[in-house]
């Protein structure tokens, strides 16, 4: 790369941290100045063990968010086996793009599909059928009277245009561009898969660095492996997968296609197959959201107003640290603390709590508020609701809550981190632009909440409790809510919209652990630079030897040297003692040195950033002379 002092644990890890933060909330391509004081990072990169902290949420968002890049989706389908394509966990709404053959489990969900997913190609089975090798379908799911035929084909064939449509999807794929055009012509202009925790998506991401010569080098940014979760798949309560759907229908000789002779009008069968039992959590979920087996879960991206507020905060925060080194000391010396917050409306001795996740239905009543749902929650423990406070996320929260925070009930560690955050807030909170951005963002996140399944001990009534993260009231909880929003933006948490036949709710998850990733030093090419370095040392050494002989001869009494001849030294001695090829390499090295910017990886009072450096005049003159 010809980047002096570039290494894996230092510069590459720093670049990864900066870029990963922006990728966490960037919805499209973006540009930013790496050398801006707003891109400083409070972290020690001097250790060989320095590593990036990767979020497992990131690959899930990549895979499950709505996208209009249909070409990429189609290429993905063709790069995946039929078995895995059938396990996309899509809860289909229609068999065809023209919406003639309905597949939703319930009448209410069918209407919900029409209202909210009519343009989503993923909920149309045709998007898959057109892009698989039909002989693979036949060998896996049978032909006439096989699994697919009983569950889908026979029902579709009862309609006037059904047989023709079935024939049309057999090996229909021509090329990616033609297929994408067909989808869009049918009104399927986007693609979104449901949120699920059957498997953790993997991602292998790189960044490309280009130097002044136009040479490019790819360096690892993320490496998160795919992981099948097996029995830890708790979201199967929401929907248990299309492969199970057609197998279940086949076993009973029923069709999944609505309004056909073999379709069962009894929607209870799907609820029973989804499971959930009859406990308090399942009972409340069915009454408040709708039946299991027919609940849609969708990843919710952070609204643009919140992203803008966070970006402005991040820049202002880094600039403030750059301007005042004492603030850096406050941040580095503060210690994160875990608190167990409880909304005021939930703080009642008459309440018993079963849990905060609709995916965990076996909870026992306890006297403390419990964690929200989580991708990695296997429902093996009832953990108390917890939030980690740091100086950074608390400063962010104080701006959102306009300086009001009652988070610490006597804890010394909590008071210390709150005091540090208050100092940071005093430097940032007075900025009118920042305050107005936070106010605008608050209105766009009003629906994001926590939930809790509870019971009134006195009356015995079951309760579905909700608490918005941010309210319009002067509620001390708002500061906690803004900490949650900060965690969402840095992908320590995720937000999912759960849509049922009765109602919908947007819930923020519990906090997730990160994955440590240390880039490999072997990825950074160094041999070419080392060869050029040694070659230039050899060239300089040979010229030094020649110079020594000439000077020795010149000082002799009968040397007879003319001073002006020394100006021809490089041309004569270089071609004679070194060689023209080596001189060319030396000259090109000087050209590269002069045409390359001086970039330094600086650390001032624990604040790390990239900086431009002016090349010393003596160095420039030296290279020009050579």
TrEMBL record:
Keywords noted in UniProt: Membrane, Transmembrane, Transmembrane helix
Keyword Membrane: yes
Domain of life: Eukaryota
Transmembrane segments: 535-556, 577-595
Name recorded for this polypeptide: Aste57867_6838 protein
Gene: Aste57867_6838
């Amino acid at each position: 790369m010809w980047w002096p002092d570039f290494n894996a644990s230092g510069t590459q890890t720093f670049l990864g941290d900066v870029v990963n933060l922006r990728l966490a909330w960037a919805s499209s391509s973006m540009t930013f100045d790496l050398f801006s004081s707003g891109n400083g990072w409070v972290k020690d990169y001097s250790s060989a063990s320095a590593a990036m902290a990767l979020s497992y949420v990131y690959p899930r968002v990549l895979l499950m968010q709505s996208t209009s890049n249909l070409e990429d989706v189609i290429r993905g389908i063709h790069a995946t086996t039929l078995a895995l394509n059938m396990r996309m966990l899509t809860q289909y709404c229609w068999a065809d793009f023209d919406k003639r053959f309905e597949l939703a489990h319930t009448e209410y969900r069918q209407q919900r599909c029409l209202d909210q997913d009519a343009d989503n190609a993923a909920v149309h089975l045709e998007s898959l059928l057109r892009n698989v090798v039909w002989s693979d379908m036949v060998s896996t799911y049978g032909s006439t009277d096989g699994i697919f035929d009983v569950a889908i084909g026979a029902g579709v064939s009862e309609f006037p245009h059904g047989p023709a449509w079935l024939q049309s999807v057999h090996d229909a794929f021509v090329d990616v561009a033609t297929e994408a055009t067909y989808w869009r012509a049918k009104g399927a202009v986007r693609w979104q898969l449901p949120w699920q925790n059957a498997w953790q998506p993997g991602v292998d991401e790189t960044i490309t660095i280009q130097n002044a010569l136009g040479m490019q080098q790819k360096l690892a940014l993320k490496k998160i492996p795919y992981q099948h979760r097996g029995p830890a798949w708790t979201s199967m309560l929401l929907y248990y997968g299309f492969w199970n759907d057609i197998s279940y229908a086949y076993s009973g000789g029923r069709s999944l296609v609505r309004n056909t002779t073999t379709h069962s009008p009894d929607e209870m069968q799907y609820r029973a197959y989804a499971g959930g039992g009859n406990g308090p959590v399942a009972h409340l979920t069915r009454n408040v959201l709708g039946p299991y087996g027919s609940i849609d879960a969708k990843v919710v991206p952070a609204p643009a107003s919140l992203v803008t507020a966070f970006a402005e905060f991040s820049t202002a925060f880094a600039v403030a640290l750059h301007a005042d080194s004492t603030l850096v000391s406050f941040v580095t010396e503060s210690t994160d603390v875990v608190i167990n917050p409880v909304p005021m409306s939930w703080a009642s001795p008459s309440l018993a709590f079963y849990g905060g996740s609709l995916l965990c239905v076996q909870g026992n009543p306890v006297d403390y508020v419990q964690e929200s749902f989580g991708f990695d929650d296997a429902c093996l423990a009832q953990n108390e609701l917890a939030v980690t406070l740091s100086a950074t996320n608390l400063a962010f929260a104080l701006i959102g809550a306009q300086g009001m925070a009652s988070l610490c009930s006597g804890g010394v560690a909590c008071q210390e981190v709150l005091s540090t955050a208050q100092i940071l807030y005093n430097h940032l909170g007075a900025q009118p632009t920042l305050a107005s951005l936070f106010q605008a963002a608050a209105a766009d996140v009003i629906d994001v909440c926590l939930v809790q399944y509870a019971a009134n001990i006195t009356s015995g009534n079951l309760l579905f409790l909700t608490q918005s993260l941010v309210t319009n009231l002067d509620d001390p909880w708002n500061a906690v809510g803004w900490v949650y929003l900060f965690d969402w933006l840095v992908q320590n948490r995720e937000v999912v919209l759960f849509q049922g036949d009765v109602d919908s709710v947007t819930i923020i998850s519990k906090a997730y652990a990160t994955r440590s990733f240390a880039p490999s030093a072997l990825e950074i090419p160094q041999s070419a630079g080392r060869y050029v370095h040694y070659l230039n040392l050899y060239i300089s050494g040979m010229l030094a030897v020649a110079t020594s002989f000439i000077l020795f001869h010149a000082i002799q009494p009968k040397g007879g040297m003319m001073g002006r001849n020394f100006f021809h030294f490089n041309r004569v001695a270089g071609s004679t003692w070194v060689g023209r090829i080596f001189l060319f390499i030396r000259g090109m090295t000087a050209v590269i040195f002069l045409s390359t910017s001086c970039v330094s990886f600086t650390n001032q009072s624990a604040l790390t950033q990239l900086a431009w450096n002016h090349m010393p005049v003596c160095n420039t003159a030296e290279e020009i002379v050579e």
